[in-house]
Amino acid sequence: MGKLLRRGWRYLVAALSGKLDEVSDPRIQIEQAIEDAKTQHQLLSQQAAAVIGNQRELELKLTRSIEETEKLQANARQALLLAEQARQAGDERKASSYEDSARAFATKLVSAESAMRDLHTVHERASQASAQARAAVETNAMALQKKLAERTKLLSQLDQAKMQERLNTAMASMTELAPAGDTPTLDEVRDKIESRYARALGQAELTSNSVEARMIEVERAALDVEGAARLESIRETLGLPAATATPALGADADAAIEPPAETTASTRRRGNSGRKSTGGQGGTRSTAEPAEKPSGDDN
Prior knowledge:
By secondary structure, this protein is mainly alpha-helical. Among the domains are: 31-158, Helix Hairpins (Orthogonal Bundle), CATH 1.10.287; 207-240. Helices cover 77% and strands 4% of the residues. A two-stranded antiparallel ribbon has the order 1-2. Helix 2 (26-88) packs antiparallel against helix 3 (92-173). The longest helix is centred in the middle third of the chain and has 82 residues, at 92-173. It is rod-shaped. It starts with a helix and ends in an 11-residue tail after the last strand.
């Protein structure tokens, strides 16, 4: 049972990690990696500073030990010289005292030299550790700079990837195989417009072929005929020539259409009755008579 639970837990952790990797923002992950690298570099720098500080402290102790050793050695030498001078002066007691002092200085000198040798050994090891710490900090600094440059490159590639994905989405939405989305494509809009236009044409065709439409056309044609007749009547009243008819579509452009018989006869009557000749003394004089009043309404 416990083994099954452990396997289930590992599977759940792996599944959640995979989902987290899918939904994670690469930019945030890059920044997290850089922050971790900076934190590691800071900790390494602090540790290296502690190692270098230990080396400096040992150097100070070694310097003091060397100074103390030299001082003890000088004191022992001075005590021996004083003892020799006292012995030459015949003062054995004083010489013996100086000998004891020189012996004490020599004992301390031996202890100081031993401590100095130990400090020297520790200092050498600390110097090596300090050199390694400096090298480690420099190497890590170079690695951090490389990661910073890599971050800039990755962020640039990420922006390019996002732009390419958006371009691919835009291009895919323009194709016929693109999946349906919230925003209709141009092809879908065109299909809708063409469908509406076709229905409108069908309705117009049905309307134009209906009985009501034909009756309206007949009434309109009758009105056009009456209007043309009234226009010709007004032209005759004003004494204007009759208008020539427009040739029909598809007919020869050079073929003229003859005017109506009634219009031609009235025009000829106006031309023949335009003038009268009268005889008189001194020659012949033409008198223009008013035009014959056409029949019809004065309107």
